[in-house]
């Protein structure tokens, strides 16, 4: 029997982006000497569904921020906007239309433009599934989880607050959708807390290494640029398929730390994976410029955080 030739293999870089390593190298390159410690667990809590999804009330948890025209450019392709960040859990009425955006976080600004909120906020799709009786109903509120680099604050403040609101709303399970690298960690920690306290969860995300490092109960991985955890932009069939697959993971995962990879591909050419925070592709001048921009945004965020406190 002939052996397949190597030219049938995928390119070497057609693998999930190593976001933790890229982020560590990137911040070292722009001058930060202390590496960030990502949340890491070797086991995860696991709560089976207590009733069929067709009878379940589902909560949606997001890291996207409500649009506020007073906070600068938050439109498609906007630069990282620390002024649009939020620092405490918020909620929104799921019976209303919402304009949520992701300019306040580090999504992939090269390969996606943040034009279609359906890629990061699948509330319309959840409402459709409720109308079709695929799920019992959508919870009366969705919840915003602050993108917090502090494990302690997420674990001790934000996750318990989201749990309390989920309990107030009588939800049976939760779908969690992160965007940037730190968002994936935040959402992973929230999922762990909900699950440990009786609420089954599924995380829909694009940063496989970060989510699995944090050890979540159930994870649907889409190998897409950050900012597209709920499907491809302007591609409703992709968004429908991605949410349905997430719900199947929620229903059928046999145990904790179940990861399912979506079969959908962003593009035939995996070259886009080489770009995100890749210091090998950045000049010294570009790294210095990014350091200046990051310091400026950090100061804006610090002021807002102090004001919020």
What does this structure look like?
The chain is an alpha/beta fold. Helix content is 33%, strand content 12%. The chain has 7 helices and 10 strands.
Radius of gyration: 19 Å
Helix-strand category = alpha/beta
Approximately how much beta-strand content do the residues carry?
A: 5-15%
How many structural domains can be distinguished in the coordinates? 2
Oligomer: single chain
In which range does the helix fraction lie?
25-40%
The best one-word shape is globular
Largest sheet: 8 strands, mixed
Provide the succession of SSEs: HEEEEHEEHEHEHEHEH
Which consecutive residue ranges, at least 5 long each, have pLDDT under 50? none
| Average pLDDT level | 93
Give the number of DSSP strands.
10
Number of helices: 7
State the distance separating the first and last CA atoms.
Answer: 69 Å
Quick structural gist:
Helices cover 33% and strands 12% of the residues. It is an alpha/beta fold and 309 residues long. Helix 3 crosses helix 4 (181-196).
